[in-house]
Structures are given as structure tokens and as C-alpha cells.
UniProtKB/TrEMBL annotation:
SUPFAM superfamilies referenced in this protein's UniProt entry, alphabetically: Mitochondrial carrier (SSF103506)
Taxonomy, superkingdom: Eukaryota
GO molecular function terms noted in the UniProt entry: L-ornithine transmembrane transporter activity
Species: Guillardia theta (strain CCMP2712) (Cryptophyte)
Record localization: Mitochondrion membrane
Spans of repeat Solcar: 35-120, 226-313
Membrane topology: Multi-pass membrane protein
GO biological process, one term: mitochondrial L-ornithine transmembrane transport
Protein name per Swiss-Prot or TrEMBL: Mitochondrial carrier protein
Taxonomic lineage: Eukaryota, Cryptophyceae, Pyrenomonadales, Geminigeraceae, Guillardia
Region Disordered, annotated ranges: 1-25
Length: 321
């Protein structure tokens, strides 16, 4: 008896890549990890540059209320009147250059790291929904953590310079040795003062931001993809909620970076929060929340608008190529 062989067709050598499913309005597209990292980097730089331009005056008021001893008992309007009276309008833009520089750099790093990480999780268990979360994927959480770590490395020294400028201090330290390399090392160490609270602040804030965005694009797509309202919901609302959760750590970060003494030493972020609550009350951990919320909503809403405009343009250009 002859057994007939059934011919098996071999797959075409140039089979198209299988694109993963996505939702309109996501912060990462359907490209591979490299493509999403590059697109996120460039679009994120626009996001990061737009944010301080739109909200720096609010940030100056917030920083003075949190970190400058002479303003710790003042209301936001007291600080506004003081700055305008003593320095004029330009006083609200002190520290803008490092904020603008840092914003564009770590905006690109954050969204590039998120896009690349999110895409790299394709085909792994992280691409699947986490049980009991309503469809939240592990890739979103992983992207948030990688973004927070990336942002902290870039942001810490630039934020210290900005805060020192906003509070009328120099960020440079006095030479403590006759050796140039020793002094350079001490200066770098000073610039990275506050790295711990910066990382934890970024993790809480960015994690919340990315997770809420993921839920929004899946559950209320008509709202988040509206031409004008959408970016302010995704950028303004989601980022502001993230800031609210991370605000006590932001207060600690501002104080640590504004301090030029060794008062804070090697104390952990949790210990510093406890000390502030014990000595000054719980309300102090939300110092500057008013101008901070205004700054977050305005700057992140405007930045998200610019991000999506450029992101969609680049995704279309990549697809056509």
C-alpha cells in the first residue's frame, strides 16, 4: 500500500511582521522596540519642552512655598505678590533654562523608555492582562518603572540647579581641596543630592500616569481621543492625579535639594516624611499643592496636545515608509 504524502507549503520568506493589537490614543504604537523608543524619544522631547514653557510660573511659586524658609508660612498669593514686587515678571521664570533643558531631555527619555519597554514586552507574559485589574497589562507597569528610573538619573541634577536658582542660591559648592578632580567629584555628588526621593516621586507619579492612561484609552476612548479635550484629560487629569499621590515625596525632594547643609544626611524618604508630619503636621506634606495642581494641569495638558500631534505624524510617516 502506498501512503500519499501531503505537500506542506513552506512559509513565505518575506512574511509580514505580525502587529500587536493596540488602542487608539496609547502612548506607544505598534512598532518594534527600537522604533517605539525613537518615536517616543523625539515626541517626548517636544512634550518635555512644552511643559515648563506652559507652567513654570506656577512651579516657581510651588518651589518657594516648599523649600524656602521665608515662604513656608505664606499662601500662594502672598508668594505671587512678593515675587512680582521684588523681581517683576522675570522672577517667575527664574530657573527656566535648566527646567527647559531638563524637560526636553527627560521628557524624551521618559516616553522613549516607556515606548521601547512596552514594545519589548510583546510576546512575554507582561503583554497579557494582569488578573483582577480590569485589563491592565504588565507592560504598562514595567514601562512606568523603567521610565521613572531613567527620568531620575537625568532630572536630579537639573532639578537641583532649578530649585537653587528659584530659591536664590548658587548650585556650585566652594572648592574643598587643592585637587581639581576631587572638587569635581564633590560637585557631582552635590548635584545628585535628592536622588532617592526623586526616584520614588517619579515612580509614584509616572506609574499612576501611565496606568490611568491605559485605563482611559480602553474605557473612555471617545473622550481621550477628542481633538482638544482628550489631551487635557490624558495629560492634565492623569498627570495631576499622579502628582497628588506623589506630592509628599515632592515636598521632601524640594527641601533636600534646596538644603546646603547636612541637616538631611542619609535619612530615608519615609523618615523625612514622618519628621515633617511629626514636627509640622500632615498639611505640610501637601505644601504648595495649589500652584502645583495648576502647573500640572496646564503644562501636561498642553504638552500632551503637542506630543500626540507629533507622535501621530511620525507614526503615519513610519507606516508609509
Amino acid at each position: 500500500m502506498t501512503i500519499a504524502r501531503v505537500p506542506v507549503s513552506s512559509p513565505p520568506s518575506h512574511a509580514p511582521d505580525v502587529k500587536r493589537s493596540s488602542f487608539k490614543g496609547e502612548l506607544a504604537g505598534k512598532g518594534n522596540a527600537t522604533t517605539e523608543a525613537v518615536v517616543g524619544l523625539l515626541a517626548g522631547m517636544v512634550y518635555g519642552a512644552t511643559s515648563p514653557l506652559a507652567g513654570h510660573p506656577f512651579d516657581t511659586v510651588k518651589t518657594k512655598m516648599q523649600a524656602q524658609a521665608s515662604h513656608r508660612n505664606c499662601t500662594s498669593m502672598d508668594v505671587v505678590r512678593y515675587v512680582y514686587k521684588t523681581e517683576g515678571v522675570k522672577g517667575f521664570y527664574r530657573g527656566l533654562v535648566p527646567a527647559l533643558t531638563g524637560g526636553s531631555i527627560f521628557g524624551g527619555i521618559v516616553l522613549g523608555a516607556y515606548g521601547g519597554t512596552f514594545a519589548a514586552c510583546e510576546g512575554t507574559i507582561l503583554a497579557e492582562p494582569i488578573p483582577g485589574t480590569g485589563g491592565l497589562r504588565g507592560a504598562v507597569v514595567a514601562g512606568g518603572i523603567v521610565s521613572a528610573a531613567s527620568r531620575s538619573v537625568i532630572e536630579t541634577p537639573l532639578a537641583l540647579i532649578k530649585i537653587r536658582r528659584q530659591t536664590g542660591q548658587s548650585w556650585l559648592i566652594s572648592p574643598q581641596s587643592q585637587h581639581t578632580l576631587v572638587n569635581a567629584g564633590l560637585q557631582v555628588k552635590e548635584l545628585y543630592k535628592g536622588m532617592g526621593p526623586t526616584f520614588w516621586r517619579s515612580t509614584f507619579m509616572l506609574g499612576t500616569f501611565f496606568i490611568l492612561n491605559d485605563y482611559a484609552v480602553r474605557l473612555i476612548p471617545d473622550v481621550v481621543n477628542a481633538p482638544v479635550v482628550g489631551p487635557f484629560v490624558k495629560g492634565g487629569v492623569c498627570a495631576t492625579i499622579g502628582w497628588l499621590l506623589a506630592w509628599p515625596i515632592e515636598v521632601v525632594k524640594s527641601r533636600v535639594q534646596a538644603d546646603r547643609t547636612s541637616n538631611y544626611g542619609n535619612k530615608t524618604t519615609i523618615r523625612l516624611i514622618r519628621e515633617i508630619v511629626k514636627e509640622e503636621g500632615l498639611a505640610r506634606t501637601f505644601r504648595g499643592i495649589g500652584p502645583g495642581i495648576c502647573k500640572s494641569f496646564v503644562s501636561n495638558g498642553a504638552a500632551m496636545f503637542m506630543f500626540h500631534f507629533l507622535h501621530e505624524f511620525m507614526e503615519k510617516d513610519e507606516s508609509s515608509s
